Amino acid sequence: MSTVGVLALQGDVREHAAALERVGATATRVRRLAELEAVDALVIPGGESTTIDKLLRAFDLFEPLRSRIAEGMPVMGSCAGMIMLATDIIGAIEGQRSLGGIPMTVRRNAFGRQVDSAETELVWEPDGSIMHATFIRAPWVESWDPAVEVLATAAGPDGMRHPVAVRHRAAIATSFHPEIVAPGGTADDRVHRLLVDLIAS
Ligand code: GLN
């Protein structure tokens, strides 16, 4: 059984851990170097990318995590986690850094700050099925390398569709929060399952 860490600096740590357990992984919290070294894969939850960047450095995790991602450790980032996995950020604050892993430029707060939270139905491109997605001050992918696979798109206030779920090698990023179960809805673990499947392959 695979051990998947959830970066436990900010965000929906418990919800991600629950989703990972549902798809058959052992979930652990990662806050220290020894904990990072013990996992086969990692989830970077949403929150505030500027804060996650600062906390990673404060916990001496930034460089070790950057290298593990560069070495190909499977990783999934949601929302602020997507921003952390981008090579370039539009709307970054001064000095803000990302970990990289996916050759793409993301736009922070792309759907507009006024759209604090929105739910929408997406087409999950890998199988053409519908996915219910929750967005919270979400980024989108503004530009990307041809090697990046687009897994889902959503319409922005500009009337254009933009990638909101992507994969590059063993790195997955979503603008939305796959760990959130809609009230009265059932859990949708496709994104977490994709991450766990990447460990095996
Ligand atoms: N707007 C946040 C950022 O720029 C991301 C929001 C989220 O993770 N829900 O980091």
Q: What does this protein structure show overall?
A:
It is a single chain. This protein has 201 residues and is of the alpha/beta class. The chain has a single domain, classed as Rossmann fold (3-Layer(aba) Sandwich), CATH 3.40.50. The chain has helices at residues 13-22, 33-37, 49-58, 62-70, 80-85, 190-200, and strands at residues 3-7, 26-30, 41-44, 75-78, 86-90, 102-107, 117-124, 129-136, 140-144, 149-155, 161-168, 171-174. The strands form three sheets. It has a seven-stranded mixed β-sheet. The radius of gyration is 15 Å and the shape is globular. The mean pLDDT is 95. Glutamine binds next to helix 5.
Summarize the structure.
This protein has 201 residues and is α/β, with parallel strands linked by helices.
Secondary structure blueprint with pairings:
Elements: E1 3-7, H1 13-22, E2 26-30, H2 33-37, E3 41-44, H3 49-58, H4 62-70, E4 75-78, H5 80-85, E5 86-90, E6 102-107, E7 117-124, E8 129-136, E9 140-144, E10 149-155, E11 161-168, E12 171-174, H6 190-200
Parallel strand pairs: 1-2, 1-3, 3-4, 4-12, 5-6
Antiparallel strand pairs: 6-9, 7-8, 10-11, 11-12
The structure holds glutamine.
Helix share of residues? 25-40%
CATH class: Alpha Beta
Bound small-molecule species:
glutamine
Query: What is the general shape?
Result: globular
